[in-house]
Amino acid sequence: MRANRVREAWAAGRAVINGWCGIPSGFSAEVMAHMGWDSLVIDMQHGVVDYRDMLSMLQGISTTDVTPMVRVPWNDPAHIMKALDAGAYGIICPMINSRAECEKFVGACRYAPAGYRSSGPIRAALYGGSDYQEKANDTIIAFAMIETVEAIAKLDEILSTPGLDAVYVGPSDLSITMGLPPGLDKDHEAMLTNLQKILDGCRRHGVKAGIHTGSPAYAKRMIEMGYNFTTIMGDAALLRAAGQQVLQQIRGANAPGGRQTGPY
Question: CB 3.0–4.6 Å: which of 76, 87, 161, 182 could bond 172 by disulfide?
Answer without folding.
Answer: 182
